[in-house]
UniProtKB/TrEMBL annotation:
It comes from Alkalicoccobacillus murimartini. This is N-acetyl-gamma-glutamyl-phosphate reductase. Keywords: Amino-acid biosynthesis, Arginine biosynthesis, Cytoplasm, NADP, Oxidoreductase. Pfam families: Semialdhyde_dh, Semialdhyde_dhC_1. Pathway: Amino-acid biosynthesis; L-arginine biosynthesis; N(2)-acetyl-L-ornithine from L-glutamate: step 3/4. One of its GO terms (molecular function) is N-acetyl-gamma-glutamyl-phosphate reductase activity. The lineage of its organism: Bacteria, Bacillati, Bacillota, Bacilli, Bacillales. It is found in: Cytoplasm. It comes from the Bacteria. The active site is at C149. Its main location: cytoplasm. It is an enzyme of class 1 (oxidoreductase). It catalyses: N-acetyl-L-glutamate 5-semialdehyde + phosphate + NADP(+) = N-acetyl-L-glutamyl 5-phosphate + NADPH + H(+). Belongs to the NAGSA dehydrogenase family. Type 1 subfamily.
Amino acid sequence: MRIGIVGATGYGGAELLRLLNNHPEAKNIQLYTSTKEGVHIEESYPHVATIYDTSLKPFNPEVVGEDSDLVFMATPPGVSAQHTQEIASHGTQVIDLSGDLRITDPTIYETWYKRPAAQIETINQAVYGLSEWNREAIQSARIISNPGCYPTAALLGLAPLIHNDAIQQHSIIIDAKTGTSGAGRSATMMTHFSEMNENFKIYQVNTHKHTPEIEQQLHQWNNESGAITFQPHLVPMIRGIMATMYVQLKKPLTSEQLFSLYHQAYDGKPFVRIRKENNYPATKEVYGSNYCDIGLSYDERTGRVTVVSVIDNMVKGAAGQAIQNMNLMNGWDESMGLNLVPVYP
Ligand SMILES: NC(=O)C1=CN([C@@H]2O[C@H](COP(=O)(O)OP(=O)(O)OC[C@H]3O[C@@H](n4cnc5c(N)ncnc54)[C@H](OP(=O)(O)O)[C@@H]3O)[C@@H](O)[C@H]2O)C=CC1
Ligand SMILES: CC(=O)N[C@@H](CCC(=O)OP(=O)(O)O)C(=O)O
């Protein structure tokens, strides 16, 4: 398959390069740039020297569409909104890692992203690529909106309870922590070493753009579901997300019933692992892999469940899930190229 990566010099692009090197169907990979035409990828990323002997080509959506069977858009907000339709018009599959096509209501997108939404025709064609829960639609999709990193961790953790209508409306609190690679390769005041090392920050309080994305999917699963509290934090690590979620149950569950809901949902799904009782996942235990590990506890005193969900933001939260979706779209084994043991320690 001929694959194009737009935004190959960014962190999402670099992670696609790492993973696609082990993918048997990814034979012909072209890399596109908006600023570094003609530069060898090794100059941006010496760690891929001798593995990718390729120079960056200028990003022209018409050429990219013509020359590719599938394109990954690993680009900042706004780029996919503008160019996906033209790329897809060549019959090319598009997987967008940005948030441009995830929100189905353009008014909600514009409120949270503070920029113009994509054309409604493009948004309507895009299928939300939460691989474990939207398989049939993904299998027949031409355009995928790859989920955000926080929504992936949060939604995989909440799905079994929401599907079983077990949660009291308005009781969902998602307390999430991420590493700095989530902010991309460009240095910012928020993430540079002196600001972030030995520090722990809360950010975008009640205003993060992943809030409507999580609410939209929860509502599609259960129309009783409404507003949530979602609070991101930045911690001094590079990769990883931990979403700790607190939800009030409608009726008490035994611990056995709680674990049974999660096993019914995820047994047979290769990338979601449910921990045993009293065992909680750490971000390092999924580092560099496509796993989402989930730990659970029901507190009889409060009637609340605590769900702990961890992913690697660069893999299951971006490039890994994008490749899982590429596999589903093309009728391949969903694990193809993704059989990675987490890097530990
Ligand atoms: N990092 C993460 O953990 C995750 C990221 N995402 C999303 O994936 C997308 C990429 O993120 P990430 O790789 O971290 O970001 P980076 O900032 O590291 O990389 C983005 C790349 O996009 C390219 N680019 C910028 N403007 C344009 C343009 N107008 N046309 C074409 N290419 C352009 C740049 O490359 P060049 O200058 O060579 O053109 C740049 O290297 C973002 O939307 C991000 O929000 C989603 C989930 C997780
Ligand atoms: C540390 C940091 O800044 N993380 C990013 C992660 C989100 C992201 O990558 O955005 P999309 O997946 O929606 O494009 C953030 O909070 O905005």
